[in-house]
Specification:
The chain is α/β, with parallel strands linked by helices. It folds into two domains: 150 residues, 3-Layer(aba) Sandwich (Rossmann fold); 106 residues, 3-Layer(aba) Sandwich (Rossmann fold). The radius of gyration is 21 Å and the shape is elongated. The chain binds glutamic acid. The site of glutamic acid has 7 residues, from loops.
């Protein structure tokens, strides 16, 4: 029997959505519905400092306002990252058992310096910080006496290739890209671990999101493999930019609060569909009407300037 398509919305409720998020949500929904899939809404409210329940509520309202529905998920707490710590603990311990986790006391500045590209003439550049090289006894001594550390994944010196449905093969040597944080010093699990565990445990097999996260796909794919799962298919989409090709403040500041006061839902959906190349002109469209018109072939790979339609 063929596995059913399971897609997801995975917003972080750290603010209102903006046009770029809405485009990602629209395309994720269209791809899922065009494939007869099941859509889930996972709230990525891991960080208690940056996220707020009011934003989660506003995001769910905005999705409904746009005509984007989901079959399972928020507000059921089982689909909110803040309520899934037990599952992250379990995965973290499984990785620890495999020797893939180590504590790190470096400051942010030290981490960045270690991750920098090698200087000309510098041979055998080691992208790892010194915490990766501690002896077991030094580590035990520091764990007993020092402040709480962050916990990092010990990545393999191995190229992980992810076939992206829109950008083609994306390959990266994980060790060269650098060990990454699984759990912060304050105990909060990091994005890479939570997303990988959730995509795996929620049966998500299609991930559609902005290309700013393409470089995370090899790490997530590797983590899922180490945890005994099968990585999802990834398809990344271009970002919205200002006329100058940079991510503009103006684009970023167009939150749904502003957008909802300026446009009817169908006007905004039509505008996004036009920007993505799904329809030939900027005309009102219901999300459901776009399902038969959806195709990745129409969507550009270059980032999309939004200036002309604002
Ligand atoms: N929560 C992330 C965001 O809003 C998206 C995570 C993902 O799609 O993997 O940027």
């Amino acid at each position: 029997m063929e596995t059913r398509y399971v897609g997801r919305f995975a917003p972080s409720p750290s603010g209102y959505l903006h046009m770029g998020n809405l485009l990602a949500m629209l395309l994720a929904w269209l791809d899922c519905r065009a494939n007869g899939g099941r859509m889930v809404l996972r709230m990525e409210d891991l960080d208690p400092v940056r996220t707020r329940p009011e934003y989660a509520q506003a995001i769910a309202d905005d999705l409904r306002w746009m005509g984007l529905d989901w079959d399972e998920g928020y507000p059921d707490p089982a689909w909110c990252q803040s309520r899934r710590t037990d599952l992250y603990d379990e995965a973290f311990h499984a990785l620890e058992e495999k020797g893939l986790v180590y504590p790190c006391w470096c400051s942010r500045a030290q981490r960045l310096a270690a991750a920098n590209a090698p200087h000309p003439g510098e041979k055998d550049h080691d992208p790892r910080c010194r915490c990766a090289h501690m002896t077991d006894s030094a580590r035990a001594e520091r764990l007993a006496n020092d402040r709480p550390p962050a916990w990092k994944a010990r990545t393999p010196d191995e190229v992980v290739s992810v076939p992206d449905g829109h950008y083609g093969l994306f390959a990266e040597n994980l060790a060269q890209a650098g060990d990454f944080i699984l759990r912060r010093a304050d105990g909060v699990y990091a994005y890479q671990l939570a997303v990988s565990v959730d995509d795996m445990r929620m049966g998500v097999n299609h991930v559609i999101r902005g290309r700013d996260l393409l470089s995370s796909a090899p790490r997530q794919s590797w983590l899922i493999g180490e945890l005994g799962g099968t990585p999802p298919a990834y398809c990344h989409l271009p970002l919205l930019t200002g006329g100058d090709g940079k991510l503009s403040k103006r684009v970023g500041s167009q939150s749904t609060e502003t957008l909802r006061s300026r446009y009817e839902p169908e006007e905004l959906v039509g505008k996004l569909a036009y920007l993505a190349g799904l329809i030939p002109q900027d005309a009102p469209m219901a999300a459901a009407e776009l399902v038969p018109l959806f195709s990745w072939e129409k969507i550009p790979r270059e980032d999309i300037p939004v200036g002309q339609v604002e």
